[in-house]
Amino acid sequence: MKENIKFAILFPCILLAGGLLYLVAHELGHTIVAIICGAEITQFSILNAHMSYNGGTFSKVMYSLFNAAGMLLPIILIVPIIISYKRNKKSILYHCCYITACLWGISPLLAWLIVPVVSLLDSPPQGDDVAKYIMSSEWHPMTVFACALAILIGLLVLVIKKGIIPEFIEIIKGFSYKNNC
Fold first, then answer.
1. What is the 3-state secondary structure (H, E, C) of the chain?
2. Which residue ranges does UniProt annotate as crossing the membrane (predicted)?
3. Domain residue spans in the chain?
4. Which of 79, 76, 104, 71 is CA-nearest to residue 162?
């Protein structure tokens, strides 16, 4: 199969699979903290991106961690994946999987940058993990923004240093060059 056709078929499928894995990790992050706090999990839905629980004893810190855990667990899982990246691999599938992991690991941090700014100007979205974190932790929204920005910059530096983005750009350029010839 031609490489550009393989890429056109594989990449959207890998993005979708990566999205589902992200949702599992996100909801699992909340679930782990709820279980640690003694809660009983009553619902865990990937397609609805929702989990619910009964009971449990949540301190202020643990409830804040509960709200942040949906963002933190995917990041904790993605860092060793990024570190294990080998730029010299020739497989398109390999590079597609890594860029997808990076996208799904890093892009949710955007909400942790946007919602704090929105909460300074207007009321934040109800039910949002970031808004709940700001309320439960009593951190100033700009402190939340600064922490999210620091995590994002750290991840981007790691991704760039490992060469994931430049290698992916080279793959894309190779396809567009082949199509123009």
1. CCHHHHHHHHHHHHHHHHHHHHHHHHHHHHHHHHHHCCCEEEEEECCCCEEEEECCCCCHHHHHHHHHHHHHHHHHHHHHHHHCCCCCCCCHHHHHHHHHHHHHHHCCHHHHHHHHHHHHHCCCCCCCHHHHHHHHHCCCHHHHHHHHHHHHHHHHHHHHHHCHHHHHHHHHHHHHHHHHC
2. 7-25, 61-85, 92-119, 139-160
3. 3-29+59-180
4. 79
Longest CA pairwise span in the chain (Å)? 64
The packing angle between helices 129-137 and 141-162, to 10°, is 130
Amino acid in position 12: P
Rama region for 117: left / alpha / beta (φ>0; ψ in -120 to 50; rest): alpha
Share of the chain above pLDDT 90, in %: 70
pLDDT at 16: 93
What is the structure's pLDDT at 21? 94
Within 13 A of 112's CA, how many CA atoms are on the CB side?
Answer: 25
Q: How many CA atoms lie within 13 A of 61 on its CB side?
A: 1
